[in-house]
Amino acid sequence: MSAEYATFALAPAVRAGGVLVDGGYQVHRDFVDFIVDGRPLLFRLADLDAVSPLASDVPPSIFVHQVRSLLLEADPPLPDGRHVIYGCPECEALACGAVTAVIERDGGDVIWRDFAWQTDEEADLERGGYHGIGPFRFRADQYRAALERLLVDEQTRPRRRVLLIGPRAAVLARLAAALRGIGVGAEIAQDATGVPAEELRTYGAVAFGGAVREAERAAVRAAFTGAGVDVAYVEGLAPVVPLLVAQIEHALDRAPSERRRLAELTVVEGAAAVTVTCACRVRIVAYRLDLLHRTHVHDVFDGTLEPGTHRIPLGGQPTRRRSFLVARAVGSVLVAAVVR
User: Fold this and answer.
1) What would the pLDDT profile of 216-233 be if each residue is shown by its tens digit?
2) Residue 127 forms beta bridges with which residues?
3) pTM of the prediction?
4) Per-residue CA distances from 283 to 39, 55, 242, 272 (Å)
5) Is 238 inside any structural domain?
6) 232 and 94: one domain?
7) Please, are residues 53 and 82 in contact by the beta-carbon 8 Å criterion?
8) Which residues form the domain of 91?
């Protein structure tokens, strides 16, 4: 076994939810990812759609138990000292599949080894083993400090909610319903006047409708600044619910670009320029509003891209009046307006 040390850290991460083209929902999940040698461990697992067991929407007692288990202060949940590292983002069933590993002490170190894809109580390393990943040897003091700090931070972590500001009640009501459908809390208001600072601190983003005047937006920003709250502000591109949900999901993901699969999306000379940080499947959909404000949906691209920036021709349809692109990879979403 390698004697070289890997660094261990934790960082907030998001599995972006959304309203899909077929009308289905993809659930939003906030979780804490494992950062090994400065890079999300999840990115080493190909195009896996999964979250760590350190999710912010689980009850506090379960969250604490998960941390204690990773600290080896509680019995492992699976035989042979195996722990769930990543599991299904939609449910907690092992039958959906999970990435597991043996976690053990070795003197003053902690080792993660024998990574495997597991769908029942016993792991089959021959068939499901991740032979190119690990083992990782961590210094116990660094490992313990990161996890114990998480227990302290968890006590003050706010729920992920969105405040929707605007007078167009019908559009905002549909947007709020869609956000709640993917697991993001949403409330509608005309402004933030008189809202207690404690409540403002429960919001992760504020979305403004297109009819909200600049003076009203400034007043909302001032209310959050006065409460000492750092939130993301979303300027709605168009009254298209899947597009607005994608904008909000992007705003809720506060991770730096190098810790997202999708780092950048722009539109240049009739083509989409998309930058990915690791090999992953990318899907790009165009939404277009015609002169009667009807929404047209057009599939632009669906395929696997290697790390780097790629130019994807849009064709004629998506470049017309009031068009927008939504790019999705596992756990990540970006939005861009098409400028003629």
Assistant:
1) 999 999 999 998 888 999
2) none
3) 0.84
4) 23, 26, 14, 12
5) yes
6) no
7) no
8) 8-154
